[in-house]
Amino acid sequence: MIFREQYGSHFPPYDPHGVFGYPGVIESFMHAFNFLLVKEASYTRLCSTKNILTVNGQFPGPTIYAKKGETIIVDVYNRGKENITIHWHGVNMPRYPWTDGPEYITQCPIQPGSKFSQKIILSSEEGTLWWHAHSDWTRATVHGAIIVYPKNGTKYPFPKPNAEIPIILGQWWKSDVNAVRDEGLATGADPNASDSLLINGQPGDLYPCSKSVDHGKTYLLRIINAALHEALFFSIAKHKMTVVGTDGSYTKPLTRDYITIYPGQTFDVLLEANQLPDHYYMAAKTYSIAPVAQNFYDNTTTTAIVQYRGYYTPSSPLSLPHFPAYNDTNASVQGPMGRDSPQRSTTSVRFYQLIIFPLEYQTPEIGTEVRVLEYNSTVEIVFQGTNLVAGTHHPMHLHGYSFYLVGWGFGNFDKIGTLCAIIWWILPFRVPSPFLRMVGCNQIRGIQPWSVVHALPCRTPCDLGHGNCVHSEKW
After folding, report:
1. C-beta separation of 435 from 97 below 8 A
2. What is the pLDDT of residue 357?
3. Does domain 163-323 have CATH number 2.60.40.420?
4. pTM for this structure?
5. Catalyses which reaction (predicted)?
């Protein structure tokens, strides 16, 4: 890892062996200068080896540690073969969105062989965020955690944990991820499912990774869903988790057996090691809400092991956590679409010539409506789903804002009609900062992996692509 620090670090020493197979960190303190070297590296997973795009040769990439209110300068060197941008997911970037990462939206991409300095302005954020590539499907392997601690002299709004552990959930394809994307574009279908889910870069039992815990101690798990298009259940066998934060903000504590985490989301949860000393599975499993046409997700369960310290004989075999029974996924049953094929003798087979009406798809016009919002006003957004047959969950990300979900339901929001597989939901939020914001999709599927739904500018001029377009194509 290439690393230079200008002002020093006030963080505890880093364990070079990592936790749960998680590699190095970048520790920063007041305007530290960090280097991210984007390059290819060879990695072996699922008994096959391929070159993947990495940062500093690590997968997942290094963790950036900072404190609330700090500003960090990161120099990104692109030594890969394709354009790259780095996005600081969940960082508000007040009055400085020009190095925020979305290529051709707030900045030009960094071309191979080029360098670009990006400024990370941490204002109100506190908790777990993350960074990732924002070009094509490179986010599959180019990502890492951002951990923002309280300011000096302040504390967590919950009892201080004995230790903190970052956990990054992801996906792995044996083939090149951009080749998977290109194949999906060529056929018009959904891209091929990943070959495995990952916990901190490892696919599970074949490559077991574990973390030792002490009975009676409390651990803060900083969980990030870096998967491209999979909502995931996450749980630890026979343990409860208390959610104390999400997406860089603290929340009212909520204790549950499992959490559901969508692509791009982060959760801070407290885990109390209060069970009998043993080995316990930590597991992540795909969540699906669509009753049909769900043959495109990875229906495996990936695991890691929480191992109590002490002298005892571990249970064998280990039990998996309990996940919800309703629409939890079709992972554990056999047959097409997750349904058992009946074992019956066939006495006759009849084929029918079906008449299929032609489907005439029309390309919708690109929306050009712009809403100018007043400073400190409260805005309400209604999202209306329109899928009639194979509706899927679709996470939305309002970058730089915290908001509340005040209502959701099935059917059309403003009419009374037939209730189909259509969902609407309402998000109110306040406009606290006068600069460009985006409402975007955090689920990579289809032609445009990161589509901007709305841009929310203020009354100040915007210099899109500021700073690095001299090294890129024409804006």
Report:
1. yes
2. 53
3. yes
4. 0.77
5. 4 hydroquinone + O2 = 4 benzosemiquinone + 2 H2O
